[in-house]
Amino acid sequence: MSNIRTGLLACTQEAEWDAYVLHHPDGSLCHLAAWKKVIEKAYEHKGYYLLATEGETLVGLLPLFHIKSRLFGSSLVSMPYLNYGGILAETTEAESRLLEEALRLCSELNVSTLELRQTRPFNYEPPVSEYRFIDRVEKVRMLLELPDSPDALFRSFKSKLRSQIRRPQKEGMEAETGGVELLNDFYRVFSLNMRDLGSPVHSKRLFGEIFAHLQPYVRIGVVRHMGSPVGAGLIFCFRNTVEIPWASTLRDYNRLSPNMLLYWSLLEYACVKGFRFFDFGRSTPEEGTYRFKKQWGAQPYPMHWFSGYRTGTKAPISPAQSRGMKTVSSLWKRLPLFLANLLGPKIRRSISL
Fold first, then answer.
1. 161 vs 156, 221, 235, 292, CA distance in Å?
2. pLDDT of 326 higher than 80
3. pLDDT tens-place string over residues 115-138
4. Do 115 and 36 fall into the same domain?
5. Helices marked H in 55-158
6. What is the pLDDT of residues 4-57, one digit of tens each?
7. Which end of the chain has fewer CB atoms surrounding its CB within 10 Å, N or C?
C-alpha cells in the first residue's frame, strides 16, 4: 500500500515548498509559493497548492488556481498568466497521486477544465475519470544558451541583426535595467500597447504584487527616446535562466526598432550577471514572434500544456480565440486609454493565458 499522502500547503511549509522547487530539475519561478499571494491579492482567484508527502518528506507538488468566470466558465490552472507550471514530483507514483487529487478537486469544485502547463509529458497514463486529457503541443519554448560575455554574444549575431540593434542607438534611444522604480514606465508602455493590439490589459496591481512578493527575481528593462519610455519588458531571473514573459513597444516608434534595443539590453544584462540561458517565452512555430526569437539564436523546445476536460463535452477553446473576444478586440482598440485600463483588468483576470 502506498505511503504517499496528498494535502494542501500550510503557511508553515512555504520554505520547504520553495526548497523543493529549487531542488527539482523542472522547478521554475512559476512554481514558487509566493504566487499564491500574488494572484489571490491581485485577482482574488483562490489558490490550491497541493503537496505529496511520504512520511515527513515532501515528494511532489502542484500549484493550482480556480479561475471562475461568467464569460469563460470555470477551470483549474497551473499556472495562470504564466508560461510554466504543472506537477513536480520525485516518482511516477507521486506524480499520479497529485493528478488524482487535482481531478478530485475538479469534481468537488465542479470545474469544466484542468490545465497543466508542463515542460515535459506525464510519465504515465492519466487515471480513468470523467475528464479526458489532450496534450496541446502547438506551442514551443524559445531558449537561447548564452556565452560567457555580451561581446561574444554580439559577435555571434548576423550582420543584419547587429545593424538592427545599432539603429535605435543611432536614433538616440537609450536602455536601462532596474527594479520597481521602473514599474510606472513599464506599465505605461505595456497598457498602451495592449490597447492598440485590442487586448484587455493586466491590472497594474498584478505587477505590483509580483514585486512585493518576488522582488529578488524580477527586473524591468526600459528603452527611452528623448527621455520618454517607448519600450519596456519585465524579466524573471531564476536559477540559471532569465525569462521575459511581458514586453511591449509603442507602435508610433516601431520604425526606429526600440524592440531590438530592448531585447539586446536584457540579453546583455543576462550575460553580465552570469545567467546561462535566456528564455524568450512561448511561440507558435513559423509565426511572426517565432521568427523574431529565432533570429537571436533561440531554439524551440516542446511545451506540453495538458488540458483535461469532461468526457462528452467539446475540447476547450481558449478565451482569446473565442468569437466574443474577437468582437471585444475590434472594439477595444477604439477605447480611450484610461477606460481601457479601467475595464481591461476586469476581463483579463478571467483569461488564464
1. 10, 20, 22, 10
2. no
3. 999 998 887 777 666 778 888 878
4. yes
5. 92-109, 150-156
6. 999 999 999 999 999 999 999 999 999 999 999 999 999 999 999 999 999 999
7. N
State whether 167 and 70 are in the same domain.
Answer: no
Joined together, the cell numbers standing for residue 76 give 483549474
pLDDT band at 1 (very low <50, low <70, confident <90, very high): very low
Question: Alpha-carbon distance 197 to 331, whole Å?
Answer: 11
Number of other CB atoms surrounding residue 121 within 10 Å = 11
What are the DSSP calls for 317-331, one per residue?
--GGGSHHHHHHHHH
pLDDT tens-digit readout, 226-267: 999 999 999 999 999 999 999 999 999 999 999 999 999 999
**Do residues 146 and 287 both lie within one domain?**
yes
Establish if 69 belongs to a structural domain.
yes
Same domain? 49 vs 116: yes
Distance from C-alpha of 219 to C-alpha of 240, rounded to nearest angstrom: 15
Tell me, yes or no, whether 346 lies in a domain.
Answer: no
Distance CA(308)–CA(292), nearest Å, equals: 32
| Global pTM value | 0.93
CA distance 283 to 85: 17
CA dist list (Å): 215 to 34, 136, 181, 211, 329: 11, 32, 12, 4, 32
Report the number of distinct structural domains present in the chain: 2
129 and 149 co-located in one domain: no
The answer, yes or no, to whether residue 328 has pLDDT greater than 80, is: no
Say if residue 194 is preceded by a cis peptide, omega within 30 of 0.
Answer: no
